[in-house]
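1st attempt posting a full record on here, be nice pls
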Amino acid sequence: MATLVPEPADTEMAASALRGLDSALDADTPVRLRVGGRDGDLLVPRSALAALVQVLDSFARGEGVTVIPAHAELTTGQAAEVLNVSRPFLVGLLEAGLIEYRTVGTHRRVKAASLGRYLREDDARRTAVADALAAETRELGFA
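the predicted structure (as tokens):
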């Protein structure tokens, strides 16, 4: 787990780089980045570029970023911090079977990949509910 915190001068540079990468995300092929030095161009997978865009976006807003490998195991406190919820709330999610975990002695360990899966599923649920609410609002003539 690595926490990256932007320096004050990094915010403007990140915003500038972000503007330059927007069109590259629309491409269907790997992206070629020109880097200083003798190595010339680098071929970067679009998925990695999407992650870089998220980091640059946070840096442009002056926010730090924590990068967690998918195979990393987190304590319940760390996992709660990633989800931005309380530890007791997270434990409830674990006990309800919504997030996979394993027990080491008397302690729970949560794989980062399980948190990512939960976040994606939760986002999908929220989007579905918002779409249904918007459709109902239109049907009732409020929109």
